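User: Quick one: structure for sequence A, then sequence B.

Assistant: Sequence A:
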Amino acid sequence: MGIIDFTRVTKDFSNVRAVDDVSLSIREGEIFGVIGYSGAGKSTLVRLINALEPITSGSLQVAGTEIAGLPEAKLRPLRSKIGMIFQHFNLMNSRTVAQNIAYPLKVAGWAREERNARVAELLDFVGLADKAKTYPSKLSGGQKQRVGIARALASKPGILLADEPTSALDPETTTGVLDLLRRVNSELGVTVVVITHEMNVVRAICNRVAVMEAGKVVELGSTYEVFTRPKAAVTAAFVTSVLQDRPTPDVLTRLRGRHSGRLVTIGVDDEAATSAEVMGVFSQQRIEATVVYGSITEVAGRPSGSLTYELSGENIDAALANLRGRAEMIDWGSATREVK
């Protein structure tokens, strides 16, 4: 049992099934990603968790409570333990930063002194202690999202739902917001569920990820596993868009024009074959190997990617046979002998 458990959950809107027979468990204390293209059903999925939308069928338990069919009066206390941040911040422009953060506490009946103390604590946590009396219109996008995070944390929730939290931000600001979400998880012990269409977000902070397509979860696993060994076509497309570590047909044509040796792309990670191990195999077979394309990046704090080598020597087939099965491999052949 996790802190959030979906069992064969569906959600229908008129003639559209937005969530289709989804079963997954989100563990307490993890950062869990849900990724998919527009229309995949990921935003609907997150709205089911805090019962902003009722499920059509199946079972959905949040913090040990079955929420399907619960009346509104019993959903309110549950929602108070679930914070939510949004793509476009949803701040009240007529209220200061401090008033925005204090608003859910005022609605919940907190005394003024308690509200003020909590707001000051959160402003310090998100790095905006000097912005308490500032209005949202004077803030940058990153600062607005920090206010949104502080507001979502006001009532000390155990779960934080982040729906496209960085889609409206530039890359540098995105890094800061993701670092803050990582601190929310590690320092406050909050379970974070990130809904996104950006694989870079998943790569940066998520422990596990579910990939959605047409309302279904088509892949589920650790972030590293999903990145290094994607099974579904949509997952592979996401990974390729982020890593950009394999030559496209146009790039391959240019590489063949510049390099006369045999071109081979080999997947590199710390489970199957590291780049040092690959080079060791080539060295043993007295093969001259030069990296001509590719990249290695970090996924969940571990190396992942692929490198394309130009190989020259008599024992290339033996070396590749040694690596085959240990690492993902594409043998492109050479300028004079393409592999079909």
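Sequence B:
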Amino acid sequence: MKAARFSRFGGPEVLEIVDLPDPHPGPGQVRIAVRAAGVNPSDWKKRKGLMDGELPQVMGHEAAGVVDELGEGVADVAVGDRVFGFSAEGAAQAELAVLSYYAPIPPSLGFPGAAALPAAIETATRALDQLGVGAGSTLLINGASGSVGSAAVQLAVARGARVIGTASPANHDYLRSLGAEPVAYGEGLAGRVRALAPGGVDVALDVAGSGVLPELIELAGGPQHVVTIADFGGAKEHGVRFSSGDAGRAVHALAEIGELIESGRFSLPVVQTFPLAEIAQAHRVSEDGHVRGKLVLLVG
């Protein structure tokens, strides 16, 4: 099968499409013929050597496609079913991928839309679970217009929470359409939030990692009410929880999202698609950092 890989660290030019042996599913896993695979910031961070030192590396943690081989004990899907999910091996940007966690693709979604979901909804759900967001909560999301941020907005609203989200003014109407109350980020953030919520907020989620943890701590009444997915150093400095999949993934999000999508309460825009062969360009766009929704590679 053809797969995306790099054998040295560097810029997008180090990416190659190579032939690798076909993978096979283990117990409880399925193999899919990949139709679409998501691109995440972690991809270019790995390519630059910022996350781990292993070489060579294949890439991709999320994909959507058609089941073509079942692992031992799998009874909840059949060959030919459309599914989306996670590749535990991190090798989803390929013609074939083994999924360790998966769910049926919601009927109204195509493969690109389904491939955009897993990382965003799992990350957002994990953070909301860790913060205990539920009906009656007031949640502040710093960086609410990207793929994880907009997923967190919609999932929190579906739980009955009030959501205040930071974004550039150009994205304020978009946040309102998702059910959030927008505020501009930057200097004076705390005052703008208190204009909407004079008593502060119950909990805060930092998706953007833009150095605002002290303000979020002050608004939420302490570091124990704040989670960041983007500021590892700041989390250590300020005693804030850094949410990562190491502590267990919220894979229940995969099975739960279909109902929200089909009822019109959740959507995640796929901003741009690229053929697998143009993965280097997808990395350039991702690394540029001005992506509102999701980048997806089309395979097969």
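The longest strand covers residues 30-39. The mean pLDDT is 95.

User: Thanks, that's what I needed.
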